[in-house]
From TrEMBL:
Keywords: Hydrolase. SUPFAM superfamilies: SGNH hydrolase. InterPro entries: Ester_Hydrolysis_Enzymes, SGNH_hydro, SGNH_hydro_sf. One of its GO terms (molecular function) is hydrolase activity. The keyword Hydrolase applies. Residues 156-308 form the SGNH hydrolase-type esterase domain. Pfam families: Lipase_GDSL_2 (PF13472). It comes from Paenibacillus lautus (Bacillus lautus). This is SGNH/GDSL hydrolase family protein. The keyword Lipoprotein does not apply.
Length: 326
């Protein structure tokens, strides 16, 4: 007998424009992360200012358009924009006075489906500029449904981060709810505040299995000193209860509540558990390294609403890889 899955109704399938933060974009070449209040999530990627085509960035997703936001200034240069490796246009980041969070390029009218955006530093500038910097603050894609039956029902599990402690607008700003908007796929959210991994594993049969998910997202490790063994057992339990379900894991985000050494143990053990069990892993810690804004105003271990958006971005990237790889 086939499994019945809830689909979003027509009204809920309306397309959504949601931010993709700079930490969820892929970079090659010379880039530096700038932590500044002038950028979304207080984070921006800057190239160097040299006259060299030595920096590029890319992001892929199911979209029908996308906007690029950045800082403009008097030391900024030019970049090429490509869609699916085809030249689309050029960005001039120069401005006589600084402009932060500026819309620098807009793409509309794409065929609804999978597209890759690329931004490539040209290493040249207009005559008024003093250098060739380019930068990326965030993207604003116009998301569309992936048009696939491989993933029709998603469940998010985890601790108080998944629950949304430190999120002012809950549940709307939770990463699970944002993923539902990005994908137009039903997402249920189950976060147990203070719960270590083995506690979450114990409720899989009662809370997760009855929903018959195609995909389970597990952000893990904050409440475990050494999460590897328990997380591997949790993955095994999921496969025992739901053998057809896919799993994607995630590390914790950067925080100053634990020491760097404690955080790296948590992060590396989650990565190892995912590697050992063949589970894709979103590296939330690497994407937020050094970002003290993400946990404000609480200032401990819980991302705020903006941080939840980045979590959604990173899980989305892994989900798209899963879909593209069949």
């Amino acid at each position: 007998m086939g499994r019945a899955h809830p689909y979003l109704n027509k009204e809920e399938l309306l397309m959504a424009k949601l931010k993709v933060e700079d930490g969820a974009i892929a970079y090659t070449g010379n880039w530096t992360v700038q932590h500044t209040a002038n950028a979304s999530l207080h984070s921006r990627h800057d190239s160097d200012g040299t006259p060299a085509a030595n920096a590029s960035a890319s992001w892929s997703g199911y979209i029908r358009g996308i906007d690029i936001y950045a800082t403009k200034g008097n030391s900024f240069g030019l970049a090429d924009v490509l869609v699916d490796d085809v030249p689309h246009g050029e960005i001039d980041f120069y401005s006589a006075t600084a402009q932060h969070g500026a819309l620098v390029y807009s793409i509309t009218g794409l065929t609804e489906g999978y597209h890759t955006l690329s931004i490539r530093k040209k290493g040249i500038k207009n005559a008024a500029s003093t250098a060739c910097y380019v930068d990326i603050d965030y993207l604003l894609p116009d998301f569309v449904h992936p048009r696939t039956d491989h993933i029709r029902n998603i469940v998010c599990i985890g601790d108080s981060i998944t629950f949304g402690a430190n999120v002012a607008s809950r549940p709307d700003s939770l990463y699970g709810r944002r993923l539902q908007q990005m994908l137009s796929i039903p997402v249920s959210i189950h976060g147990l505040s203070g719960a270590p991994i083995h506690t979450i594993t114990q409720i899989l049969d009662a809370v997760v299995a009855p929903r018959m998910p195609d995909l389970i997202l597990w952000l893990a490790g904050m409440n475990n000193t050494n999460p590897r063994t328990d997380l591997e057992r949790g993955f095994d339990k999921i496969r025992e209860l739901m053998p057809d379900a896919n799993i994607i894991g995630s590390t914790i985000q950067y925080n100053s509540y634990y020491t760097s050494e404690q955080n790296m143990v948590k992060v590396n053990e989650v990565k190892t558990a995912c590697l050992n069990k063949g589970v894709p892993c979103a590296d939330l810690y690497a994407a937020t390294a050094g970002n003290t804004y993400i946990n404000t105003p609480e200032g401990t271990v819980h991302p705020n609403g903006d941080g939840q958006g980045l979590i959604a971005n990173l899980f989305y990237n892994e989900i798209i890889k899963l879909l593209r790889n069949g």
